[in-house]
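User: I'm curious whether this sequence folds into something compact or stays loose and floppy. Could you predict its structure so I can see for myself?
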Amino acid sequence: MSYLPKFSPQDHAYMRQALELASRATMATSPNPKVGCVLVKDGVTLGQGWTQPVGQAHAEVMALRDAAAQGNSVQGATAYVTLEPCSHFGRTPPCANALIEAGLARVVAAIEDANPQVAGRGFAMLRDAGIEVAHGLLATQAREMNIGFFKRMETGRPWVRLKMAASLDGFAALPNGQSQWITDAAAREDGHRWRARADAILTGIGTVLTDDPQLTVRLPGDEKVPAHQPRKLIVDSQLRMPIDAKLFQSGEVTVFHAIKNVERENALQSMGAELRFLPGAIPSTNSQVDLLELMHVLGREQVNELHVEAGAKLSGALIQAGCVDELLLYLAPKLLGSGMPMFALPELQRVDEAQSLKIHEMQQVGEAIRALVRF
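Assistant: Here's the prediction. I'll summarize afterward.
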């Protein structure tokens, strides 16, 4: 029978500190998870650290280095870490070995690693070395911090967040297609912060043709946000992408298509686009990009979080295909009266046929209400 160890108020405080450290790695570690570590003995913090960019040191090693730089011995200390220490050789050596060699007495982890190469093996290595191990402290918060990593490890697909801005009466644009700007500057800046944490941003050809977006992260004046730019992904089943689209001006662009057209393919490749042929698997769908398979492709390419900013058609198709995990909605205090819906979904005959979702979080951002709603 499993049970949750009894943790002290001090344990909670140090794990919260470790989670704060992990948050500093946002936008820097993918495809690795964001992890924080605090080393403590007799109520004194000896060292702390967080995961560095891919190929560099993990949180535990950074904390050990920090302690050494301060001249602190960690023999007999406790490590508070937001994820199970890794037990395998990847781009870096196992963190579990580093903690064992340093002479730690206790390791408190928030959550077990979902990576099948670890998944309890790190804990076993520590216990075999005589180190006391406990986990489950603030596990929900730790999982939330790396929700895309856990989703990819468990399903082979990224966590998909679909962003949409709309009026209070549910319209994403006027009948003529105009949508700039339904929300105010504060909400738009907040949306860019959500873009920044994603590994890739996806839109459809309809949005490209209508809005000619850049699909870049733009946060002027905020020096704390690194210049991380997610990959740009376009669903363009019929290869209608214009070669003068703004999104070609910077960053990687991958176009997923469902037909063959050598002339159009050559034109787009001349602009630096990567083309991926991904038609549906059955005749009735083979002229459209297979959206579910697209998610598996991105999972294999180690995309943890996918940010979607698309029109009603593609957004609705992604929802119907079961690809969307979360809606990021900005509801502006405006009434448009009529216009284009947020999602193109089949008409229902009864209210009880409606898909039920769960409101995860709501708060005001500028003049808008930001709602995170999960499937």
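Summary: The radius of gyration is 23 Å. The CA atoms of residues 156 and 299 lie 5 Å apart.
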